[in-house]
Every structure is written in C-alpha cells, then in structure tokens.
Amino acid sequence: MQFNAINEKIAEIKDDSGKLNSFVEEYKPFIASCANKVSGKYLNYGSDDELSIAMMAFVEAINSFDSSKGNFFSLSRNVIKKRLIDYYRIQSRHNNVVPLTLHMDGQNEDFDISSGEAFQIFSDQRLAEYRRLELGELGKELAAWNITYSDLARVSPKHSKTRSQCSKLVGLILSQPDMMQQVMVKRYLPITQLEKVSGIPQKTIERFRKYIIAVVVIITGDYTFIRDYINL
Fold first, then answer.
1. What is the pTM of this model?
2. Which CA distances in Å does 191 have to 160, 170, 173, 219?
3. Of residues 207 and 14, which shows the higher confidence score?
C-alpha cells in the first residue's frame, strides 16, 4: 500500500521527541501549504500566528494518528483546518467579524463550517456539487503541470502490477520530504532518484509520470470528496 512507509515512520517518531521535531521541520512546506489554503493568503514562519497553530495541529495529528483508519496527510490537513477555523472564530468574536461560512454556488444558504453542521446536512446533490467543484480546482492545479483529465485517462495503470508499482512510487514520495518538496514546490518528479530507491525501471516511471503526480497532488491536497476515487 502507498501509505505503509509514512505510517511506519509516524509510529516510529511518536515516542521520540527528537525524531518528531525533525519530522515536523522536514514537513514545514506541507504545513504551510495547508495553512495558506485555509487562510487564503501566503503566510510566513516567525511572523504569522497561523503557522504556529498549524505546526501544533500537525503534531496533534501525529500523536492521534491510527494507521488502520486511513491517510495521515488527510488527517493532518483536516486537523490543521479545524484548529485554524477555531482560531479565526475566536478572533472574530474579539473583533466582531462575521464568522467563516461556506456558501453554495447558486444558493442562498450559508453554514458555519466550524460547527460541522454543513457536512451533516449536505444532500447527495450537494455532495455531487462539491465533487464537481473539487474536480474543477484539481483541474486548475494539474494544469500547472500541463496535465489534463484526458492525459490521466490515457496513462492510468490498467493492470495490478503497474498499479502496485505506482502505489509504491507514490508511497516513496510521501515518505521522503526531499521528494515531496521537489514534486510540490519545484514541480519536478525525481525520476532518476525514484528508479534508484524503488528498483522500478525509469521507462515505467516516465510512462506513468503524470498519473503519479496527480495522485500525490490529490492525497496531499484538499480534495476530500474525490480522494476515494484514486485507483490504487
């Protein structure tokens, strides 16, 4: 499974403060990316309180993570989002600011996203709408890589062997902060490095390059409603 390596790493560092601190330091770009999306602005370590809150939330996610219940990156992103929403709610009370809300396009209903009410009352139609919106956002993000949905349909692995190989490659990227940074920040898939550590031929990695990138983007991104459709 693609999460085995990162799951094992989380289990290893939970009771070792030194390793835990190093892990948090290595994943600061990921933490910042999560916080930036919630805040809607670019944040800087050392000057924005949101990043301190996000780092504490990331540690909270590490300590509470149960590998039998799914994806660490999804959990940590959700915990960061919740803690930042709590922070903004407190700030809004002090500053008499209108609470953060979710607004459905074409509808006049607003829901307090911090209460969980929005997700409890979504109908199947609204869930479908959110999947559509997420697909739109994902399409924009993948466009930065010159990847289209047509490309993904064409290069998606069709056989169990190639699905297993892609799963292994995604897991390696997620478990290696340097690879994560190359993919998410530099927008570059380190094919030679992946070949070396995985033993999978460079030709195969190159063939499924766009698919591998897309899966990493979905797993580490804010794509709650379409993540379950990843074919790995």
1. 0.56
2. 21, 12, 11, 19
3. 207
